[in-house]
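quick one, 222 residues, struct below
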Amino acid sequence: MQLLLLEDDPILGEGLRDFLRAEGHTVDWAQRLLDARCMVSAHHDALLVDWQLPDGSGLDWVRSLRRQQDNRPILMLTARDLLKDRITGLESGADDYLVKPFEPEEMLARLHAVQRRAAGAPSGRKRVGDIDIDLQARSAWLRQNDRPLRVELTAREWQLLEALVNRSGRIVDKATLEALVGGDGHAQSNVIEVHIANLRRKLGRNLIETVRGLGYRIPVEG
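---
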């Protein structure tokens, strides 16, 4: 996933950014609300937002995003642990609420949970034809003769597959995919074509549809 992290504490922010990157995610880190407003884009799959910031309220930003019909998963990170604060955070549009201090592993588990709910797959598992995909375990299986065979994917191949699965049924252009897998987003290289070709070789040629002149699309069932 490509994530936007809004956290003003430099030690916590750096630690969370490095942890998430080590887990294979792409992370843009902002320490001020103004920076986050400038950085956020359609490339981001989910947002991790601190409530109290030097230049404003992260919660107010969450409210404004929801008013703009931005429905991507949002995880609120805050030291405010009163019941009324949790209720306010959730009713204002956050999908989950995590009280500091917390373990990064719990944050990641909660992030996966809200992402699965947003994708319409509570179990984290999806099926595309003869392919089973587990978003939480980051694993894929190809069914052959009614037997599931696990397919080994590189980190980049998995990031690309995950990006397409999370946008199932939608066309995703090359520049967006390059940004999601850590490229420069300028669509000037053939790295995406190489990864797409490798995924088709490993998982079947019909997995990913090329929409000429627009990008790529993957259908997801179940």
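The two ends are 21 Å apart (CA to CA).
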